[in-house]
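Take a specimen:
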Amino acid sequence: MSDERLRILKMVEEGKISAEDASRLLEALREESPAPPASPAGEHRPRWLRIRVTEANGSRVQVNVPVRLLDVALRIAARTGALDDDEGQQVLQALQEAIATGEVGRIVEVVDEEDGDRVEIFVE
């Protein structure tokens, strides 16, 4: 079983996502084609949204979400209140614009100057 499938099942077990959300995520992984879809200009569109959180103490968390599942991921984030503030809305808008234009690389970087924690969001 792939790492992505195991992560989805672990999130269900921990109560982080519902069984319905997990089903959608698993189905999308099954349907994902091996080659990235081409844009009209022949360039490759971004396939992955990667979120990396690094705490000042050195611990790291990385979450990889297929771009095709961004809507599901955003609904999960909305349930947790992660997008309730202005900064969350700005991050969401930056992600949507980057994906729509085919931009790749680091889209968002947030550093907490007080404690040194860092959140980076990449589209690849």
Remarks:
- The first helix runs from residue 3 to 13.
